[in-house]
Specification:
359 residues; mainly alpha; 0% strand; globular
Length: 359
């Protein structure tokens, strides 16, 4: 955990410095991405997908039995093995794309991304990128594509999303969001739909959710409990509650609402995902919520900037508590951290044991 804490603090501090210097703001802000990139790129046997890709998908691709896998994913694995003779190169590519596109998204929305990085880490988005690499890349690609929603460039948006599909099929779920993310969700509709989901979540999970998830519904039938996903419920309730309070007090002007419509709606969708999560079996139901979490980073940051000191302190404390809780739960074997600088290697027997014992 020491590695994650130290690199996270360095990244946040560098971003904080970037917002306060007079020259070179953008360049210094980009430097804040390096610590987390290095942690992700140099890790070994850390995160579920590291071992899963190494022992399963990579072998299927190299043996020519991978037609069911996404074409760009296959290309990255073949490039890593056939050109560089190193599986680690594929890990570095996934890490680079995820961090680079996430930072592009953050920097497009604000020149002070220190709190966005803090939320990105606190809500487990970074941990998730170590644990579900392809979906994390697809999410980062969507983050980049949100600019085309604002600019109303449908063809460009579709093109980028379909590129995401070549990495992880789940990216196709982002296509209909083009038509809804710019729409205003009123307070009345937010509360009404939340109540409906709360009381009818079992029906939705059993009959409606599988229609959208298809074969990925299998992810939600793995594991023993999904109450773990309430780690998102508390901070998301805090963020939306803060928004509603500011809205009632007329602290939010029309410019704020327009500029943050996409990020606010992503936060609302993540919140609705939390309400639905307890009806799904398996900690992997967090994958549905993870689709929308980068939007929470931006929206919470927008509220943070206009908040008084006490609210800012409370936001930071809440983030630290959530990060500590997630780290303690150790999702996807992110602890202990291993890197190319140590000699540890997870055996296939240990891998199978962890998968089937859900450890």
């Amino acid at each position: 955990m020491f590695v994650y804490v130290v690199t996270s603090v360095i990244s946040i501090c560098v971003a904080f410095l970037a917002a306060r210097v007079k020259k070179g703001k953008l360049g210094i802000a980009w430097l804040s991405a390096i610590p987390l990139f290095l942690v992700a790129a140099l890790r070994t046997w850390t995160g579920t997908d590291y071992a899963t890709y190494y022992y399963n998908q990579s072998q299927e691709i190299l043996n020519g039995n991978s037609q069911h896998l996404e074409i760009a994913f296959r290309g990255i694995i073949l490039l890593a093995y056939n050109v560089f003779s190193s599986y680690q190169v594929a890990i570095a590519i996934f890490a680079f794309v995820t961090i680079f596109l996430s930072w592009k998204y953050f920097l497009k929305e604000s020149n002070n991304i220190s709190f966005m990085i803090f939320v990105f880490i606190s809500l487990g988005c970074f941990y998730f990128s170590l644990n579900a690499m392809r979906q994390a890349v697809a999410i980062a690609i969507f983050c980049y594509a949100t600019r085309f929603i604002k600019e109303r460039k449908f063809k460009e948006y579709v093109l980028i999303i379909f590129f995401g599909v070549t990495i992880h099929y789940s990216a196709v779920l982002y296509l209909p969001l083009y038509f809804v993310l710019n729409k205003k969700i009123s307070t009345k509709n937010l509360l009404m739909i939340s109540v409906i989901i709360f009381f009818f979540s079992s029906f939705l999970a059993k009959y409606i959710y599988p229609l959208f998830l298809g074969k990925y519904m299998a992810y939600f039938n793995w594991g023993s409990s999904s109450s773990y996903n309430f780690r998102y419920f508390i901070p998301l309730t805090f963020v939306l509650g803060l928004y509603l309070v500011y809205l009632k007090k007329n602290k939010l002007n029309s410019f704020f609402e327009t500029e943050n419509a996409i990020h606010k709606n992503l936060t609302i969708f993540a919140f609705w995902g939390c309400l639905l999560a307890p009806t799904l079996t398996g900690e992997s139901s967090s994958r549905a919520i993870a689709f929308f979490l980068p939007g929470v980073c931006v929206f919470w940051n927008s509220l943070y900037k206009i908040s008084r000191k006490e609210i800012k302190i409370l936001s930071v404390l809440l983030g630290v508590v959530i990060f500590s809780y997630i780290s303690m739960k150790n999702p996807g074997w992110i602890l202990p951290y291993h890197s190319i600088f140590d000699d540890y290697k997870m055996s296939y027997t240990e891998f199978i044991y962890k998968i089937y014992s859900n450890r």
